[in-house]
Every structure is written in structure tokens, then in C-alpha cells.
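Subject: design request, 338 residues
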């Protein structure tokens, strides 16, 4: 931008945080630069100073000052016009293709992706490549698509994306009120006992030598969150491995992984919670997390119900074939968790 603008906040941006508004409308403005403009009072809402956390209201007037991002220059100070400037558009095209290849369902309000194992949903420490960042390459009716919920980096399967803030608000309420029906499939080391049941525990994040983990703690522990899941063994290979269908009621970090480990039957390939002796390890299976968001049943924001199923990732499909498990024959087994 090269001049001061005063913009009226639209209805679709009502109750949106100011930093999120800039991320949606001016993604080229770096966060540090945004903070500086706010600290110096150059950005104002209805003539008043604002913070990144300020919630906007429809009809408010937003003052936006001139801001210029640093241009690429060569070693003699001249602005470059070659490959470096073309890279953002090439990256945008690559992100659009990568996300498009993952789409299982798309309509005017929603996209549903089949997220691969190993791809992060959001950025974090040392995580630069993630779905939330790639979504910045898309625009639907002037709006950037938004994540509705999350999956662990190593968990594969169904991930819901809203194409507008309005749809995101409606679907977020669905997940908060636990109206979304989510079914996960896992391959566990050992067979859970009893074969069908529920797990209720208080969980808390803790630092560890292998990164942040989640531990079961006592009720009343400061910072602990209650978690609740249902599980059912669909099929088993002797007493060594089991195909387990899981239904999380709450949505805590690493919840299903911790719950299965709590039963003494950790999910195969789990680098954080599969603590078993070397002689107990089972060879011949991919060293990847065997946890997949298989099915999602949600009310659609325009009415009706959306019922989607994601095919198993390659490493889990290979394990199912090796064990003689038939995912198509037993898809209905998810129903027993109702």
C-alpha cells in the first residue's frame, strides 16, 4: 500500500481479530511490521488505537496506513525482476496443486481433505510447511479458507476446511458442541481388554527429551483437561495386533494415542507413546503411525448431513493386506460405537 485508506469492516468480518483480518486481507504484511504499526498508532479502529487481539465489529472504520514490504535487491542495490520475484507465484501454484490433490469433497462452503501422514496442519517450531500455510494460496469470494479442526502431523485422514468465515463459525460450533461424529481406525500393539469400552482421563502436556508429550494426570491437577473416548476392537491377529475403531468425544491433543497407550496397547508406529521392549517389537510393518481419521459425519451449514469416508493411507493399507483385514467388509463396524 502506498497511501492511507479507511475501510469499513464488512459483516463477514464481524468479531474477527485484527491480526487475523490483516492475515486475510493483507497477507504480504509481516506480523512484526503489523505490530510496529499498531504500537505507533498508525492503525486505528474508529479513530482509536488498537492491538492485534482487538475484535472488530461490522461497520467500524479501520484506518490502514501506507506500508511497503522490502523489495528484493541484487548485490549493487538494484531491484531484481527475475526468478526471485517469480517464486511466490510458483509457490502459490504448487500449494494449490498439492491441496487440490487431497480434496475428497468440495462444495460452496466446505472442502474436505484426505491429509497424508507426516504433513502438519499448522505451523510451529521448525515447521514451515503445513496445510494452513498452503491454504493462503486460495481465495473464495474474497475470503481465505480456514481450518475447522486439527489432526496430528502423523495422523492421516479427514480434515475439514471452511471456505468462508461464516461457514467456519457454523462448523466450529458443530465441533464445540460435539455434534460432529468422528471415527478413527488404528492398529494397536496388543489387543485392548475388554474388546469394547470407553476411556475417561485427565491429560496434560509435559516437556520431554523427545519433545512435548501428553500424560495422564490426576483430577484437579492444574492445567489438566478431561478427555473421553469410546473404542471397539473390529478384528485381531492373535493376541499381538488389533484393528480398533475409535470415537473421540472430546478433542484433546494426542488423545487417542494416549488412551490406547493407557490400555497397554499403543498404536503401531507411534514414536512418542509406543514404549515397549525391543524383544516385543513386531517386524514387517511400516514405522509410521497407524492412526487414520476414517469417517466424518457432520450437519452441513446449508442443511442436510455430510457423511464422508477417507481411504487408508498406503502404509496402513499394506498392513491391513498383510493381516488379511478387509476395510470394505467392515466399514459398518464403525456403527457399533453409536
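Subject: RE: design request

Done. Sequence follows.
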Amino acid at each position: 500500500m502506498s497511501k492511507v485508506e479507511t475501510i469499513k469492516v464488512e459483516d463477514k468480518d464481524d468479531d474477527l481479530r485484527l491480526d487475523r483480518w490483516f492475515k486475510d486481507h493483507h497477507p504480504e504484511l509481516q506480523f512484526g511490521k503489523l505490530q510496529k504499526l499498531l504500537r505507533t498508532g498508525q492503525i486505528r479502529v474508529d479513530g482509536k488505537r488498537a492491538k492485534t487481539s482487538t475484535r472488530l465489529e461490522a461497520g467500524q472504520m479501520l484506518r490502514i496506513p501506507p506500508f511497503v514490504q522490502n523489495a528484493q535487491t541484487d548485490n549493487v542495490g538494484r531491484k531484481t525482476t527475475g526468478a526471485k520475484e517469480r517464486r511466490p507465484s510458483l509457490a502459490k501454484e504448487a500449494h494449490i496443486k498439492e491441496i487440490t490433490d487431497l480434496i475428497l469433497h468440495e462444495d460452496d462452503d466446505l472442502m474436505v481433505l484426505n491429509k497424508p501422514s507426516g504433513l502438519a496442519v499448522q505451523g510451529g517450531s521448525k515447521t514451515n510447511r503445513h496445510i494452513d500455510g498452503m491454504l493462503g494460496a486460495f481465495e473464495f469470494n474474497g475470503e481465505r479458507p480456514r481450518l475447522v479442526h486439527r489432526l496430528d502431523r502423523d495422523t492421516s485422514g479427514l480434515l475439514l476446511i471452511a471456505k468462508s468465515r461464516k461457514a467456519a463459525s457454523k462448523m466450529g460450533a458443530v465441533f464445540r458442541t460435539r455434534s460432529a461424529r468422528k471415527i478413527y481406525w488404528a492398529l494397536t500393539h496388543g489387543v485392548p481388554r475388554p474388546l469394547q469400552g470407553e476411556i475417561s482421563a485427565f491429560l496434560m502436556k509435559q516437556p520431554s527429551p523427545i519433545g512435548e508429550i501428553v500424560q495422564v494426570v490426576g483430577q484437579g491437577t492444574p492445567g489438566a483437561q478431561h478427555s473421553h473416548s469410546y473404542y471397539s476392537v473390529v478384528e485381531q491377529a492373535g493376541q499381538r495386533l488389533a484393528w480398533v475403531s475409535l470415537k473421540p468425544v472430546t478433542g484433546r491433543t494426542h488423545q487417542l494415542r494416549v488412551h490406547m497407550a493407557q490400555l497397554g496397547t499403543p498404536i503401531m508406529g507411534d514414536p512418542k507413546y509406543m514404549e515397549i521392549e525391543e524383544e516385543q517389537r513386531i517386524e514387517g510393518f511400516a514405522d509410521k503411525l497407524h492412526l487414520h481419521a476414517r469417517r466424518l459425519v457432520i450437519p452441513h451449514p446449508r442443511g442436510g448431513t455430510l457423511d464422508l469416508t477417507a481411504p487408508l493411507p498406503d502404509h496402513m493399507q499394506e498392513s491391513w493386506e498383510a493381516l488379511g483385514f478387509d476395510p470394505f467388509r467392515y466399514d459398518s463396524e464403525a456403527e457399533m460405537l453409536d
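The radius of gyration is 23 Å.
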